[in-house]
Amino acid sequence: GLLIAATHIELRSVGDVPLESVLHQQSRHGQALVASSVSDGAGWVLTDFHLHDGFSHFLLLDNGFTPRQAGRIAQRLVEIETYRVMALLAFPVAKDTGRLVSRAEDELADLMDGMGQSRSAEDDRAVLARLSRLAAEVERSVARTTFRFGAAGAYYRLVRQRIDDLREQRLPGFSPIGEFMDRRLVPAIDTCTSIARRQDDLSGRVARNSQLLRTRVDVEIERQNQELLAQMNRRAKIQLHLQETVEGLSVVAITYYASQLVNYVAKGAKDFIAPATPEVLTALSIPVIAGLVFMGLRRMRKLVGKEDGETHA
Questions:
Q1: Which of 88, 166, 260, 308 has its CA 20 to 30 A from that of 104?
Q2: Are 31 and 46 in contact (CB under 8 A)?
Q3: pLDDT tens digits for 218-237?
């Protein structure tokens, strides 16, 4: 597997290694030591938090530790170093995410300017497509980094808890472990928290702007649908007028052909209808036939309208 942290702890008696001789030394890299008294003065912890041969080194001076105290302090030092490194795994992710968030914020501002300048539904749809792509990119980044940022906060809290368990006391002229973490680890954690907050805020802004733009597109589509329905209504009215015109012509045509049939019948039976003539009988039949045809078409139109009303209901 991958090596996360390697820690070397040297437990020495204060009689073998006097505290004063160590405090005046510096690490091999020229950095000042981090030193503090722990466990209410039962010993001292000294380190420089640098890697030497792949290990971070802690010198633990015994000034009255019990075996159980020494073991607990050694365990806490190992956990502090391990959790510190685990928390810092989020920092490179935060830097990469920060660049993505900055670029996405600039792009979102450009898209909002474009939305304000759009003059047609096509422009709105083009902006919406770009905004949807940006939203997918931001959400993918959120899904990829949420766990790491959350884990960094959890590991940092564990580091603070283990430092509190040491019950440190400051040595004059030297920084304790807690102060070192405040100076070096806290800014990294704050950066991760800030990037996570910016990313969540950007995700919310993209979602709100997407909803706003979708509303504009939906309103434009509804307007176009209303215009289409109005055109269909006008066409339906025109068709209705044409139908009424055709019905009137149909009355005339049916009356004409029916009257011709009456004329033919009257001519064939002229000996039986005398003194009436076929012409007179045909003339008399025309109003009757026209009235019957008109009433029949009107009744048929009412029945069709009633059936349509029942279907829509």
A1: 88
A2: no
A3: 877 888 888 888 888 888 88
H/E segment holding residue 51: strand 43-52
Per the CB < 8 A criterion, the answer to whether 273 and 266 are in contact is yes
208, 182 Cβ separation under 8 angstroms:
no
Report the distance separating Cα 290 and Cα 253, nearest Å: 10
3-state secondary structure of 158: helix
**Amino acid type, 127:** V
Q: Give the number of other CB atoms < 10 A from CB of residue 168.
A: 18
The contacts of residue 26 (CB under 8 Å, 6+ apart) are 32, 33, 48
pLDDT digits (tens, 9 = 90+) for 270-281: 767 777 777 777
Beta bridge partners of 35: 46
- The torsion angle over the Cα atoms of residues 205, 206, 209 and 210, rounded to 10 degrees, is -150
